[in-house]
Design goal:
The structure is a single chain. Strand 1, helix 2 and strand 2 form a beta-alpha-beta unit. The protein is built from 5 helices and 4 strands, in the order H-E-H-E-H-E-H-E-H. The chain has a 4-stranded parallel beta sheet. The protein has a single domain, classed as 3-Layer(aba) Sandwich (Rossmann fold), CATH 3.40.50. It is globular and about 40 Å long. With 121 residues, the chain is of the alpha/beta class.
Length: 121
């Protein structure tokens, strides 16, 4: 299967990853994680693709401008075999709190200090 073995690949595939922030770092990290064998993702981001950030979002195209970042990234990850729940909101939304509790891994890719503090709770 891979150099790390079948058992390790199965563990990666069963581990859920919560990614808070699907921006320049977050989308690259998610693509690397799915390439490594992770298959379960929750994506949280309340921003949309804009022309000035399109260059930092390799899975997006010009026609994706205006679309939620999490939608574009989720579609890309699904094409790679991942199960994805995309939430178009910020960390301050109480509906995302259970996702933090359920995730096996948690990654915070947020620019604003306030968002980082919410990730740290």
């Amino acid at each position: 299967m891979s150099a790390i073995g079948v058992t390790a690949q199965e563990k990666l595939a069963a581990t859920s990853v919560l990614l808070s922030g699907a921006g320049g770092v977050g989308n690259i990290l998610a693509m690397d994680l799915v390439s490594s064998g992770f298959r379960r993702f929750w994506l949280i981001d309340g921003q949309s693709i804009e022309l000035d950030n399109l260059s930092r979002f390799p899975c997006a195209a010009l026609e994706d401008t205006g679309q939620p970042k999490v939608k574009i990234l989720a579609d890309h990850l699904r094409r790679r075999g991942a199960e994805v729940e995309a939430v178009f909101t910020g960390n301050e939304d109480p509906s995302v709190e259970p996702l933090y509790q359920e995730s096996g891994w948690f990654v915070c890719d947020r620019n604003a200090v306030a968002s980082r503090l919410l990730c740290a709770r």
